[in-house]
Write a structure and sequence with these properties.
Elements (H helix, E strand, L loop, with lengths): L1 H46 L7 E2 L1 E7 L9 E8 L8 E7 L23 E3 L6 E2 L2 E4 L8 E5 L10 E2 L6 E7 L14 E9 L2 H5 L11 E8 L14 E9 L32 E2 L11 E9 L5 E7 L9 E2 L41 E10 L10 E2 L25 E5 L4 E13 L9 E2 L2 E7 L2
Parallel strand pairs: 1-12
Antiparallel strand pairs: 2-3, 3-10, 4-8, 4-11, 5-7, 6-9, 7-8, 11-12, 13-15, 14-21, 15-21, 16-20, 16-23, 17-22, 18-21, 19-20
Length: 455
């Protein structure tokens, strides 16, 4: 009994020793794993450049005046807020295509070029003190590195003492990236690194992988982009209308708004014509007329203007006011001097200043004048000018003319412009006076009006 008990006790001790050893082994393995994990976690940090005491700028942005690939003369409006008030004596902007991380290599393949390499740049920071104008350091490059320093000891302090709550802004001009790292002409993301320095010499010695001790830093993402093209077409435009307009059309409010609102009637009746006094449109219905004038309206976007002209349709080789089919005497180019006042044709002359072309004087004659240019409410131009032969007032004493020759190449000019026209209308007034010997009959003449635009 005794020997068996001793053996059992020894067996229990042995089991306890084994268990203790196993537990110790597990603890060692766990400790070893923890150490390995801790060392592994420190490796990335140890691999990064150590930058002492640098704070990150906030509210940072760079606004480009163009996002076009390769665009020259682009303004880079830079803005940020610092987190400390130590005097800034140096500032670096480095533009890279691959990363904004401070202290890493900077790829400038097809990157920003031609940042300023000489001159000065002035900062804006409300409430700041000191010298806000820094010099562009000679170590700036044309491949996107801008180094600014202030080491000249200008009165007011060497460098600028910033205000943390105000935007720190400045701008410079550069050429946008001409593509991505891998492909020319393709838009894409690129980056800017911004660093501020308390020592000008440290800023001047900046390199991407050795930025040196600095005050603040931060990264900004930017991008070039494709341009959006919108196509549209404005066609050549000419709107022209002719008709008989009421005598009440005398001002913008009464003028037809456009050719769609223009009258479709085309007859101007000047009533009974006699030798005692001229009949001048509009002639009232009580005197046998239809109380209308002629009117021609034009609208065109021709930048070189337009011309309105007319010619008299020929009847029996004559474009006079006449009885249809009648044979007219006299010439076709003058006031028909020597022509009969006993044929069934009214004399006329294309020169309003001709001595015989005064309707207040007794004699047979017919003519037309443009007494005014009217523009409807809303018209935006005043470009139509009457021709000197047709710029009368409608008074009997002058201003009337009529080219009865029928020449249509070119036709006789009534009015013209040297620029665009927005619904401008000529008021055409007609006048006739018979001689004591003018035969009775129903007289008429038809005229054709032409608008020619020069685009």
């Amino acid at each position: 009994m005794y020997s068996i008990k001793i053996q059992k006790t020894n067996k229990n001790k042995k089991e306890k020793i084994v268990k203790s050893f196993t537990l110790l082994k597990k603890r060692f393995e766990l400790l070893t794993s923890a150490i390995i994990l801790m060392v592994a976690s420190l490796i990335p940090a140890l691999a990064q450049p150590q930058i002492a005491n640098a704070a990150q700028v906030t509210q940072r942005k760079i606004r480009l005046t163009s996002s076009k690939v390769g665009q020259t003369g682009v303004t880079y409006n830079t803005s940020f807020r610092v987190t400390q008030t130590t005097a800034i004596r140096g500032l670096v902007v480095e533009i890279c295509q691959d990363t904004p991380l401070i202290g890493t290599s900077c790829n400038t393949t097809r990157g920003v070029t031609a940042t300023p390499t000489t001159g000065t740049i002035t900062f804006t920071n409300a409430g700041s003190t000191g010298d806000a104008t820094f010099e562009v350091h000679a170590n700036s490059t044309a491949t996107g590195r801008l180094i600014l320093t202030d080491a000249d000891g200008i009165t007011g302090g060497d460098g600028i003492v910033p205000v943390t709550g105000a935007d720190f802004t400045f701008s410079f001009t550069a050429t946008n990236p001409t593509g991505t790292i891998s492909t020319a002409g393709v838009p894409g993301t690129f980056y800017a690194r911004v660093l501020t320095y308390g020592v000008a010499a440290t800023a001047a010695a900046y390199t991407p992988t050795a930025p040196g001790t600095h005050l603040d830093d931060g990264g900004v993402a930017l991008s070039t982009a494709r341009q959006l093209t919108v196509n549209a077409r404005v066609q050549e435009q000419l709107e022209f209308c002719v008709g008989a307009i009421a005598s009440t059309v005398i001002d913008p409010a009464s003028t037809p708004a456009n050719c769609s609102a223009f009258p479709t009637a085309t007859t101007v009746d000047i009533g009974v014509v006699d030798s005692a006094a001229p009949s001048i449109s509009p002639v009232a219905t009580s005197s046998g007329g239809n109380n209308t004038n002629g009117g021609v309206m034009i609208r065109t976007n021709a930048v070189n203007g337009a011309t309105i002209s007319y010619f008299a349709e020929q009847n029996g080789s004559s474009g006079r006011l006449k009885v249809a089919g009648a044979t007219c005497s006299g010439t076709t180019t003058t006031f028909d001097t020597g022509s009969s006042t006993t044929d069934q044709c009214f004399n006329s002359n294309a020169d309003q200043d001709h001595a015989d072309n005064n309707f207040s004087v007794v004699g047979e004659k017919f003519g037309m004048t443009s007494s005014s240019v009217l523009r409807p409410t809303g018209s935006t131009t005043t470009n139509l000018t009457r021709d000197l032969e047709y710029d009368g007032t409608g008074a009997a004493a002058g201003g009337f003319a009529w080219d009865q020759s029928g020449t249509n190449d070119p036709a006789t000019t009534l009015a013209s412009s040297s620029s665009v026209l927005d619904y401008e209308m000529l008021v055409l007034r007609f006048a006739a006076r018979s001689a004591a010997t003018t035969p009775t009959g129903s007289y008429a003449v038809t005229s054709t009006y032409i608008a020619t635009s020069t685009f």
